[in-house]
Structures are given as C-alpha cells and as structure tokens.
Input
Amino acid sequence: MVVRRRSVALALVALQSVWLGVHAITSAGDRSTALLVAGGVLLAKAVVVPVGLALVVLRTREAQRMTSERHPFARLTLALAIALPVAALVPRFGLVAPGVERPAVGLVALGIATAMARRAAIFQVLGFLVAENGLYLAALSAPAGCRPSSSSGWCSTSS
Output
C-alpha cells in the first residue's frame, strides 16, 4: 500500500507467492499430492507473473517517480481501516489450520483495498494478486474435501 516503486511492489508480491508455495509444499507431507501440485503452481506463479509484469514495467518506464492521489500514510490508514475490521469479524469457517481464516480474509480485503486505492494499473493488478494469494492461503488450509460415494459418485457427507 505504501510502496511507490513498481519494482519493489512486484518483488514483495513475488515473495508473498513464494512463501505460499513453500508453505504448500512443506505442508503436503502425507496429506495429498494436490498440495504438492498447488505448491508447484504457486512457485511458478511467483516467478512467471512478476517477470511478465516486470517486463511491462520496463517497457513503460516513466521519466519521473509515480505520483499518487493520496499520501502513503493515508493509503496505509485506509487499507488498515478496511482490512483489520474485516479480518476481525470473520468467524471460524472450518479450515484445517486454526487461525488461518483471519489472515486469509485479511489478505483478500487488503488486496481489494490496494486495487481500489491505487491509480496506476500495475498497482491495481498487484492488489488483485494479493487478494488471490489470500484465497490460496484459505484453499491450502481447507479440509481434504469430500469422498465420492461408491453408489452415486457424488460427495457424501458421512465419514
């Protein structure tokens, strides 16, 4: 929210994606190969998307520093005023890892707030990537899912 340099913002979002990918791979263990695949996809996303966006930034170099419609402290205050209450009001909704709901929803709210508060298109894209990373965090902590019923092939609610 407060970063002015597009390259620094790209690096921060890439680091966030790398962290999620490493988290998925280390959590895979004996749970599922799906987490291993998800971790690989997240790591690829952490490299491919920032590199593509960095190429866009290089092609659209501006002669002067990006100006913003709001002061960085005002943007940070706006983001915190949106993300913190949303995260605090989230009830537990059944993720495997306890306490993941609030950070995941907080990331989604922070990403949307970033996309709304920033004028430059690259920062709006990065805001949506932060929101997407919040969804990934929730998905990585979701229960294993349903087991298909042998008779119908649909998910059964009984264990």
User: Anything to note?
Assistant: Confidence is low (pLDDT under 50) at residues 153-159. The beta strands are 147-148, 155-156. The chain has five helices and two strands. The first helix runs from residue 6 to 28.
